[in-house]
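Form 7-S
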Amino acid sequence: MSQKPSKKFRINEQTRLHTFFLNPYENERFTRCPKCGALTKARKKVFVIHIEPGQLLNLNMTGRYCPACDLMILHKDVVEGLMAAAFTQINPSIIGNEYLIMGTLDRKTWLDIQAQPHNYSLVFDNLHVFKHVVKFEPEHYGWVPDPTLKKEKTE
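Output:
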């Protein structure tokens, strides 16, 4: 008899959390959700970032969050600035390398990891991978008719 798969995806027994968007637009800070238009909240989370070649960074930072859509938004310029600041003294050759924001950690786990900084299994065993990673493109603005208005007949 086959077992019915769970509706929640799990990696290392951790639930996948949040839909994630890395905002590449420096002039857009998403105080409103790009999906539903609701006001976003500021949320502080610990993000796990893999930087090539084989470097992990646990970055405790604030991002925008829409509770209605479970959408977490980080701003690319802020993330890259914090990563550069973190590696300027430690390993400047890694600055500018490719990176992947993998997911989040619980704050308690992050504090445990700070006590054992090279315990990578603790990171991966407690990592909450993102449910989805999405992209939003800006609309091309121009003069277009409002589709909600009825056309008036001209006679």
